[in-house]
Specification:
By secondary structure, this protein is of the alpha+beta class. Helices cover about 40% and strands about 30% of the residues.
Length: about 350
C-alpha cells in the first residue's frame, strides 16, 4: 500500500495525472474491499483534488465505496434491527451504521444519568437495562429495554439533558449515535432523520410513561396496611429465587403495595427496580385478610440507616372487595377465660 501511494506521488510529480488517478481509483477499491473505509475515502478525495472533472472515477468509486460499506455492516446487527434498516436506502443505512460507535457495559453500570448532557440514541444489540426516573428522592422504574430496543430518544432529537437514567442489568453491547450527526445528515441524507424519528415514535415516550405513572398514582385509593409480610424474588416465569425475606408493610391500593425493608447500600437497593417479587401477608386469626400477590418493583425511596421504601406494582389489580376487607380494622383477639 505504501509503495503504491509513493507511486501515485511519483506520477503526480512527473505530471502524469491520468496514471495517478487510475492508480488512486484502484486503491479506493482495494481499501474498500478490505473494510478500510477511511483510507478509501482519503484516496477518493485525492482523485477529486487532482481532477474535479474525473467524473467517471469519482462517481464509480463512490458507488463501490457505498456498496462495500453496506456489505460490511454486521449481519447480526442488521438482522436484529431489520425493521429500521428495511426503511432506509443504501447510503442512509451506511450513514446510520458507520456513524454509530460500539460500546460495552457491565451489569450495574450507569450508561447515562438523569441531568447529564449526553444527547445520544442507543441501539441495544444485546443485554438488558432499566430506565429509571428520580423524583424527590424516589427512584421510579419506568421500563426495561433489551436487544432490538433503543433508549435516549427523548434527548437525542430535541438536544436536551437526560430526563432519566439507564442502568445495565446484564452485560450489554450497544451502538450509540451522537446528536452531532444530525446536522450532517440534513444536507447529505435529508430523509434519514425523519425516518429514524418515525421509527422511535412507535414506542411510548418517556414523558408519556411518566404521565401515565402519575395518573395511576392519583387514580388508586391507598389505605394504611401495617404489619409484617414476606417477599421473594421471582424469575420471569414466576418461580421463587433464593430465600424469602421479611418486610414491613406501609400501604396498599388495588394497583400495588408499598413496604419498608432494610438493604445495605443504595446501589443494591436500586438493583431491585424492574425485578419481579411475590409478597405474602397473613393475619393470624383472620384468613379473610390474607394476601398473596406478585408484581414488579417500580419505585425505591432511600432512607437513613439502610432503610428503603419499595413500591410493588401488582401483575393484576386487587379486587375492590379485597381492598375493603383490608381497610377494615383487624378483628380483636379473643379474650381467654382462665
Amino acid at each position: 500500500m505504501i509503495e503504491k501511494q509513493k507511486l501515485v506521488q511519483d506520477h503526480v510529480d512527473r505530471g502524469n495525472k491520468r496514471a495517478a488517478i487510475e492508480l488512486l481509483f484502484a486503491l479506493v477499491i482495494e481499501c474498500a474491499e478490505a473494510g478500510n473505509f477511511e483510507e478509501a475515502e482519503a484516496m477518493r478525495s485525492r482523485i477529486v483534488a487532482l481532477d474535479p472533472m474525473a467524473f467517471g472515477e469519482i462517481i464509480r468509486s463512490g458507488e463501490i465505496l457505498e456498496r462495500e460499506k453496506n456489505r460490511h455492516i454486521d449481519p447480526g446487527h442488521r438482522q436484529l434491527w431489520a425493521p429500521l434498516y428495511d426503511v432506509l436506502g443504501l447510503e442512509e443505512a451506511n450513514a446510520l451504521y458507520f456513524g454509530s460507535r460500539k460500546a460495552s457495559y457491565e451489569a450495574g453500570e450507569t450508561i447515562f444519568e438523569q441531568g447529564d448532557w449526553k444527547p445520544r440514541l442507543y441501539l441495544i444489540d444485546s443485554g438488558r437495562a432499566n430506565i429509571i426516573y428520580f423524583q424527590d428522592g424516589v427512584a421510579l422504574f419506568l421500563k426495561s429495554v433489551e436487544a432490538g430496543q433503543f433508549a435516549g430518544e427523548d434527548v437525542f432529537f430535541p438536544l436536551a439533558v437526560c430526563t432519566t437514567s439507564m442502568i445495565a442489568r446484564s452485560r450489554m453491547e450497544v451502538r450509540h449515535l451522537d446528536a452531532d450527526l444530525l446536522k450532517g445528515w440534513r444536507s447529505l441524507h435529508p430523509e434519514l432523520e425523519s425516518k429514524l424519528l418515525a421509527f422511535v415514535g412507535n414506542v411510548e415516550s418517556t414523558s408519556q410513561l411518566l404521565k401515565s405513572r402519575e395518573m395511576d398514582r392519583r387514580r388508586m385509593r391507598r389505605i394504611f396496611l401495617g404489619g409484617k409480610a414476606t417477599a421473594s424474588l421471582l424469575s420471569m416465569a414466576g418461580k421463587p429465587l433464593g430465600n424469602p425475606f421479611r418486610v414491613d408493610l406501609c400501604d396498599i391500593s388495588r394497583g400495588g403495595v408499598c413496604f419498608m425493608m432494610r438493604i445495605s447500600g443504595r446501589d443494591a437497593a436500586r438493583q431491585l427496580l424492574g425485578n419481579r417479587l411475590g409478597i405474602s401477608y397473613f393475619e393470624p386469626g383472620d384468613c379473610s385478610r390474607n394476601l398473596e400477590k406478585s408484581g414488579m418493583v417500580v419505585g425505591v425511596q432511600f432512607h437513613p440507616f439502610d432503610d428503603c421504601t419499595v413500591n410493588l406494582k401488582f401483575d393484576e389489580l386487587l379486587p375492590e372487595s379485597v381492598l375493603k376487607l383490608l381497610a377494615q380494622p383487624p378483628a380483636p383477639a379473643p379474650e381467654l377465660d382462665f
